[in-house]
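Checklist before submission:
- one chain only
- standard amino acids only
- sequence pasted in full

Submission:
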Amino acid sequence: MALIIIQMPGGDTEAVDPTQLLWFRPAFDWEIANTTAIRIGGQRLYSIEKMDKISDRFKQAGQKLGTFTAPAGDIKPVVNARNVLEIEKAKPAINHPGARAVLKFSFREGLAVRETPEDARVILDDALKA
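Returned file contents:
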C-alpha cells in the first residue's frame, strides 16, 4: 500500500494511509481558513491543497469517493464510500437541524449530511461501482 503525501500549512507534509480516509471538506474559517479539512481515522488534518487535487490523489490510490451536502451552507464533503459502515436517520435533538442522515464510520464517528438515508445509500452505491 502506497502512502499519500498531504501538504500541510507552513510547508510540512504528512504521509497518510489512503484506506483510512473517512471524509474531507473545505475547512471552516474558524478552523484554519483557506485549507481543506481531512479526516483520516481519528485524526483531523488540514491541507493547503485544493479539494479537487486531494480527490484525484485518493481516487488514484483506489478509494471510492462520493460527494454529499453539508446540513447547512454550500459545503460539499467528500466521503470514502468504503468506510461508511451504516447510514442512520438524523435525530433533530442530536444532529444539526438541517441534517437528514448520518454516515457512520464507527460507533463514535459520524458525518451529518443533508441527503435522506435513501439518497445517501444511492450516492455510496454509485461511488462503489465507479
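Reviewer check: The chain is about 20% helix and 30% strand.
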